[in-house]
Amino acid sequence: MACFLVPAAEAAVVTIIRKIAEDNQQKKYSALKVHPEEVLKSEESVLHKTRWLTNLLWGGSALLAFEHVWHGEVTPWFPFLTAMREPDSTSAMLHEMATNGIGMAALVTLVWTGMLAVNHIRNKKNIQEAQ
Hints:
mainly alpha; 4 helices; elongated
């Protein structure tokens, strides 16, 4: 029904935080002779890794939204979500958002954390091999 709104909300929050952090980092490096673009795009940058999370969240939310449009649960006219037409279906929608939506957002974040761990182990191994 509307479970895609929860990962989309998380994606929006993470995107805003990342944009603010990027702006702050660019201001920090503008006084130095280091190009901020090189710092932002480096593999070790935390901001680069948060971009992975936002891509996962936005992509998953877009696919889920398309699936809900395909099944007629989201419409281009008010109230947009068909579950909001009746109080009984609205409570079912909120329950789905609280269970499925939060579960999907948490799973995507957990997968991202796993990606960070694998990346860290791989980088550590590459450093040890280079020495």
